[in-house]
Amino acid sequence: MLFRSSKALKVNKTLKTLWFNKNMLGSKGAVALADSLLVNKVLTRLELGVNGIGAEGMKALAASLQVNTTLTTVNLELNDIGDDGVEALADVFEVNKTLIALNLERNDIRCRGAEVLADALEHNMALSTLNLWKKGGHLFGGHELGWSASNEFVHMEERLNAILERNRQHK
């Protein structure tokens, strides 16, 4: 079904929102979808929560987001993206100026991934909403942390919030 959907997205002229949450895409499905996003000029919102995309699928999606100029909102909640997937996604912010909202909640993103994101967002004025938090208000992975790791997370949270606030004020 996804492969037919991805072909249809290539010629889509009307669909603006694609809700594909909880469809077990996996990395192969993400690659097929990413191929469609390279040419789609209409879709503005993409909902891909809980699909097991992983870091490899995120790399393919990130490559398409570097080219896509219509998507403004992307939900990638609970997709096992991790720091490796976030590193690929960070390259998007060098060139993409249309993505304004991104949900990466519950993707096991640690301090390394958050730092990569913060570094990339220093050069991006478009993204104004970013969700990295796990339920219960824990930042990033929400794991039990020692004192120094907790302080690192707090510093990353403050840095990311400052960048996002700057972007909101810029609009």
Oligomer: single chain
Shape: globular
Detail the poorly predicted runs. 135-148
Please identify the structural class as seen in this structure.
alpha/beta
Q: Ends: how far apart?
A: 39 Å
Summary of the model, kept short:
The chain is an alpha/beta fold. 48% of the residues lie in helices and 9% in strands. It contains 7 helices and 5 strands; from the N terminus they run αβαβαβααβαβα.
Q: Would you write up a description of this structure?
A:
There is one protein chain. Strands 1-2-3-4-5 form a five-stranded parallel beta sheet, with no helix packed on it. The chain has helices at 2-11, 26-37, 54-65, 82-90, 92-95, 111-121, 147-170, and strands spanning 17-19, 45-47, 73-75, 101-103, 129-131. The protein is of the alpha/beta class and 171 residues long. Helix 6 (111-121) packs parallel to helix 7 (147-170). Helix content is 48%, strand content 9%. Residues 135-148 have low confidence and may be disordered.
Features:
171 residues, alpha/beta, 5-stranded parallel sheet
Outline the fold blueprint.
Elements: H1 2-11, E1 17-19, H2 26-37, E2 45-47, H3 54-65, E3 73-75, H4 82-90, H5 92-95, E4 101-103, H6 111-121, E5 129-131, H7 147-170
Parallel strand pairs: 1-2, 2-3, 3-4, 4-5
Helix pairs in contact: 1-2, 2-3, 3-4, 4-6, 6-7
